[in-house]
Amino acid sequence: MRGMNNSLNTDRGRPKVAYPNRRQIEMQVVDLERLIPDDHPVRIVWAYTEGLDLQVLHDAIRSVEGGPSGHANDPRVFVALWLFATVEGVGSARELDRLCKRDNLYRWILGGLTTNHHTLSDFRVGHKELLDRLITEGVAGLMHEGLVDLNRVAQDGMRVRANAGAASFRREPTLQECVREAKEQVENLKKEIDSDPKGGSAQVHAARKRAAADRLARVQKALETAKKIKETKPEADRDKVRVSTTDPEARVMKMADGGFRPAFNVQFGTDTRSQIIVGVDVINTGSDQGQAVPMVEQLKDRYAQGPDEYLVDGGFSKHEDIEALESTGVKVYAPVQKPKDKTRDPHAPLANDTPGVAAWRRRMGTDEAKKIYKDRAATAECVNAIARNRGLRQFLVRGIEKAKTVVLWYVMAHNLMRGWWLRQARLKAA
């Protein structure tokens, strides 16, 4: 049999094999429009972007007709790129840059334009006020359509890892030494460049100067922050204060898995009927206590109305906040702490309860309140999970303002896709 196979191989001739030729030149005709299905989410993102008021971005463009500089890319393209990237869970400017060169979906958004990761990164964190306004306008539009009513809002906090390691936290004496070393590094670098200006390109010199100045600024801010925190601590705890030299605004918080890591606390206020995020904040305190009133005030500022019912978990149950909300007509739904005396009814008002707290206790003892409170987990925790699935697990930026800007992109992406779903559901039901 073996001989027969060899004979057959010889008889049939030499195998015909095609080998790659990577030096050949070829022309390809690609119709990106036809490559993208009509119902693909990228088209939803682009259609939404086309309807946004981005005049403030156009006004900031320095290139003008008849001027010496080239054309600036349409800002709408950058908005669409980051919105679609966020929907797909892409949170890195470098990764987005790679996708813009290789992935037809992102190439379709670009439409033949080019960009780079520096431009993408700067755009992402450079327009916090604009993003905040667009979120308000988007929710107001959904309210006008009757898809959001703000009748019942749930709030929850989510700890997100900061772009800093635990080893970057230093006490005040060490921070003072870090400042001294950073200043020395800046001076030595200046002398080195002055003594040998041709020792490297101007671009390299500028990059080294920026890096040294950035480190000096961060350690100085860390030292200032440590001094401020110490003033709020008891005398016995002041020597224990530590601040990160990587991100001075990050704080060590207890995470969902029980571990302690540098993080920021992301606060979402969500309309329970629609699961649209209507309020957002980023803070650097690990506790949720005291955050309910600021969120309700934010909703009033954004939409000229507050919620009728407010759902929070036990971490928000600060009696002062409950009284403040109840006194303005907001019904609070939050679990009542179990009393140490097991014979006492936890829902019976105490002698020192304020009127609002007493009303809250009585309310939470009813079957109706227990049913309403179930909406909190179904709404707030669901929204948190969606954000996690889209990559909101660790910030790649530093500083609380940049962290908030990144979170605003997540809110915009969430509300965009959720709003589209709500409209489709209404059309199907009609």
Mean pLDDT: 89
- What is the string of helix and strand elements? HHHHHHHHHEEHHEEEEHEHEHHH
Shape: globular
First-residue to last-residue Cα separation? 73 Å
Number of helices: 16
Structural class: alpha/beta
CATH topology of the largest domain: Nucleotidyltransferase, domain 5
Number of domains: 3
In the CATH scheme, the class of the largest domain would be Alpha Beta
Query: Unreliable runs, pLDDT <50, ≥5 residues?
Result: none
CATH architecture of the largest domain: 2-Layer Sandwich
Radius of gyration from the alpha-carbon trace, in angstroms: 28 Å
Number of strands: 8
Within CATH, the superfamily of the largest domain carries the name Ribonuclease H-like superfamily/Ribonuclease H
Strand content: 5-15%
Main sheet makeup: 6 strands, mixed
Helix fraction bin: 40-55%
